[in-house]
Design a protein that fits this description.
Elements: E1 2-8, E2 11-20, E3 23-31, E4 34-39, H1 50-56, E5 60-65, H2 81-93, E6 105-109, H3 111-122, E7 129-133, H4 149-163, H5 177-192, H6 194-198, E8 205-210, H7 220-239, E9 244-248, H8 254-257, H9 259-268
Length: about 280
């Protein structure tokens, strides 16, 4: 681990790197208050989550980082759900060395929410609670069917092309379109069994979900995806009624478009979990 510090206004930001599994993970820590770790998702970086992180730093001691192949993290030989979970696990081993006064609230966006649930299920005593932003959803049906593959492949090829403009920056994503597609197929499989992980968690859980994760079209695939998204949350709350649920009128990019609302919900969710609140 290497560490450096800089002054940002009246707050001290500390930056360090975690080396594990052949990759280098950049980590930043700053703010004051209750410890909180913010985990990005697939195709998102800590730079992308900067607005939300800065809002949270007003009353939280916030740790952010990049997953392998994202942002300022190094590339890797493999990209898989398990590999990303190892990244999160390696980062969470470091704040203890820095003297966090108590277990952190673990906040995850999209894939980061799934990673948070799996981590908490395996290490229940090391987190104070979970905030899950538009992810970790036990959807009853997979999102990507055989019929959907051509459209998704084209979408992620276009995304990979656009991401080339970010190479060498804090927002870069080094994954290929095929790697992104393979990961999304794997995430579908992970979510098919994620209820078992929830059953192992006895910490407060808050979900912040988008009403139109696939966009606001009232027909076609978007309608099917959105219905599946809502059905997954309903399925979870039926089984785990103390999960608090907030819906924002947004698509899957809510963490970028509704950062202020998300930060306010996180501030209000630090007490015991309440019954689901649409």
């Amino acid at each position: 681990m290497t560490t450096k510090a800089d002054e940002s206004g009246d707050r001290t930001m500390r930056h360090f790197t975690v080396h594990h599994d052949g990759v280098t993970i950049p980590v930043s820590r700053g703010g004051r208050g209750r410890p909180l770790v913010l985990c990005p998702g697939l195709n998102s970086t800590q730079a992308d989550l900067h607005e939300l992180a800065e809002l949270l730093r007003r009353d939280h001691d916030v740790v952010t980082f990049d997953l392998r192949g994202h942002g300022l993290a190094s590339a890797a030989d493999r990209y898989s759900f398990e590999a990303f979970l190892c990244d999160l696990t390696a980062v969470l081993a470091e704040p203890a060395r820095l003297g966090l006064p108590s277990p952190p609230v673990l906040v995850g966006y999209s894939l980061g929410a799934d990673l948070a649930v799996h981590y908490a299920a395996e290490h229940p005593d090391t987190v104070a609670g979970l905030i899950l932003i538009d992810g970790a959803n036990p959807v009853p049906e997979p999102f990507i069917t055989e019929a959907d593959l051509p459209e998704f492949r084209a979408m992620w090829e276009d995304l990979a092309t656009r991401q080339e403009a970010e190479r060498g920056t804090a927002r870069q994503v080094l994954l290929t379109a095929q790697e992104i597609l393979d990961l999304n197929l794997e995430i579908d499989m992970v979510r098919s069994g994620i209820l078992d992980r929830y059953r192992k968690i006895d910490r407060p859980i808050t979900m912040i979900m988008s009403t139109s994760m696939a966009g606001d079209s009232g027909e076609g695939r978007a309608l099917r995806f959105n219905q599946n998204w809502h059905a997954g949350v309903e399925r979870l709350v039926r089984e785990r009624p103390h999960v608090s649920t907030f819906w924002l009128d947004a698509d899957h990019g809510l963490v970028f478009t509704h950062a202020a609302e998300i930060a306010q919900i996180i501030r209000s969710a630090q007490g015991p979990a309440d019954p689901a609140t649409p």
